[in-house]
Q: What sequence folds into this?
């Protein structure tokens, strides 16, 4: 059976990819990059067993939500939570990054509201978990799992209101062994039908991470442009992601932990390094002012990801942060 690329609002670059590791700090372009633990208050101090960080974001829909096919869509009540936990395994730091995304989505076609059987908006969710090693080990991924339930915008010919969206319920599991891996997509809408692929990543040119590390990996880089390798199970290929940093003297104003803050930032543009790569994403990362007293831990302050078919975009904005002490 041919794979389907499902469009879910939190697949992050259509669930594509980013970021890597290596030996030259501050290199760019066609060279590997090195990661450092800027998510710590002091980059020279290692995380401890049972350290935990929790970040919470509000997610807002921007745009008209109007399709050329005649329907409109609306997203509300979006939330995104990221939890990073540290465990020592055989004297190595092993990180577990867990994320949860949820948002309400409704459609309207020919004056008819398209909602669930209870007359309420559909609930789209994405849950992911990835384990990986420390920055000293190049953030080497161990295993990732993502489950996405999505009522995604459709470009199909609409004959009835329900044609506005396509329903997906899939789990992607990827297991790594060095620079090799196995990825399995399970389609829960088809009696848990599974399709497996194996892959090998050439690490000579670029470093690589799993897609579920993408946004976290941005926090571990110096603000220089880079290219990174990530495996995409949807196209069964390793893809190269272009990461372009631009420094800025401005500060981003937001309410963090109930207090108004102005936080200096670096802006990052993310895109697939290929022809017909599609829209780029934009990420605002808190700037490192002092690596040994890094108050805002290079946290992701804001994130904007476009919808397909020019339907608008989603903006994630940090509202609370409980950093590793």
A:
């Amino acid at each position: 059976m041919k794979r389907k690329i499902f469009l879910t609002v939190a697949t992050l670059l259509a669930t594509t990819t980013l970021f890597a590791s290596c030996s030259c700090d501050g290199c760019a372009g066609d060279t590997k990059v090195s990661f450092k633990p800027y998510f710590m208050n002091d980059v020279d101090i290692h995380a401890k067993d049972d350290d935990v960080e929790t970040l919470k974001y509000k997610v807002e829909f921007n745009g008209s939500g109007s399709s050329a096919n005649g329907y409109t869509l609306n997203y509300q009540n979006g939330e995104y939570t990221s939890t990073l936990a540290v465990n020592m395994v055989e004297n190595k730091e092993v990180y577990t990054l867990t994320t949860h995304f949820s948002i309400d989505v409704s459609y309207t076609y020919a004056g008819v509201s398209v909602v669930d059987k209870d007359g309420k908006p559909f609930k789209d969710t994405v849950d992911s978990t990835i384990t990986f090693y420390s920055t000293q080990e190049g953030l080497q991924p161990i295993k990732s799992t993502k489950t996405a339930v999505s009522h995604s915008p459709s470009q199909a010919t609409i004959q009835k209101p329900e044609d506005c969206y396509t329903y997906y319920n899939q789990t992607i599991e990827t297991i790594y062994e060095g620079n090799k891996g196995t990825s399995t997509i399970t389609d829960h809408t088809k009696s848990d039908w599974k399709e497996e692929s194996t892959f090998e990543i050439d690490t000579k040119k670029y470093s690589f991470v799993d897609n579920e590390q993408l946004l976290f990996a941005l926090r571990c880089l110096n603000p220089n442009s880079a290219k990174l390798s990530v495996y995409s199970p949807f196209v069964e290929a390793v893809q190269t992601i272009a990461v372009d940093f631009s420094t800025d003297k401005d500060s981003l104003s937001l309410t963090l932990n109930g207090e108004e803050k102005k936080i200096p930032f670096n802006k990052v543009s993310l895109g697939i390094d290929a022809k017909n790569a599609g829209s780029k994403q934009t990420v605002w990362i808190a700037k490192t002012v002092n690596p040994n007293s890094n108050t805002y831990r290079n946290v992701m302050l804001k994130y904007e990801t476009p919808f397909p078919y020019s339907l608008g975009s989603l903006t994630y904005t940090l509202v609370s942060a409980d950093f590793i002490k």
Observations:
- The two ends are 49 Å apart (CA to CA).
